[in-house]
Amino acid sequence: MFNNKDNSTNLKNFFLLFFGILSFFIIRYILIGLEKTEQQSLLFVIVPIIAGISYENRKLSSDWKVLLLKIFSSIIIGMFAFIYDKQNGLITFSDRLQQSIEIFILAFVAISSFYHNKKTTLKLTEGNTLLYSLSFVYWIIAADFTIYNISILGISIISFPIMYSIFHAITKTKLTNKSRLYLSIWSSAIILFFSINYLLKLSKNYNPENIFLNLGEFFILGVSLIYMFQNAVLILGYLLTDKNDELKQELNNKHISRYSSEQVNTKDSVIVIIFCGCVYSANFLLELTSSETLIWIVFIITPFLIKIKNLLKTKAQ
How far is CA 309 from the centre of its chain? Predict the structure, then answer.
């Protein structure tokens, strides 16, 4: 007799094999279609986006079978959209393919977010919020917003959460439920803003001839889409629960539970401040890449920087 764990593993393997075979034929059909319509350049958009979403998935779970199941399931959902479009008047292969790709990506992000619902909303720290606030300050400066074109009210609204997050990151002030709620909402708002802003930037400035740059930028887009989806739920949920106190409290509890009560090391906060200051200042002066792209690169690199520092510290002891 098999126990529940064996049954679950066997079922997972069955669906993996079934969806895998089906996905193989779908991918083969799409590749042939891309070649016939001379749209192979789309692969330099699709593949890095999938890689970016997969990168975030691997951070949430090391089970590669689950990752493949999510990819295969999303491919099949996208194919259903392809067939539906054919039956409803979208004549050209290109039109149907573009919409099915968009649905595939949306399905992949949605499945990933819901499957790892708790993990994708855990755990934020004071260090994360500090990083987001510093990046927001850089974005404002890089976007050439000045005191002359922002109202006093706007400056006050922006300045308070930025200073509040910096204060908490460099001091040992206790994190109460209220402060964790404020810091979590602020973090979600910034990440949602940066995600949408980056998506709009790519849609306006996409250059199919710049293949190498596209690989990096669309990989970052894949990473940002996971955060966009989750933080949209956490922020826009307040609009839907405006007159429902029970649901609003449930949303507040989600924010509080995902924000760590442990205070970050002050030295780590100083490293983040110095690193962001150096990188953002250099890019502001030299204009090596767009501010939107650099911000997401810093989001990806900074945690590794702190991990390396902690690893070196442990080895030195």
Answer: 24
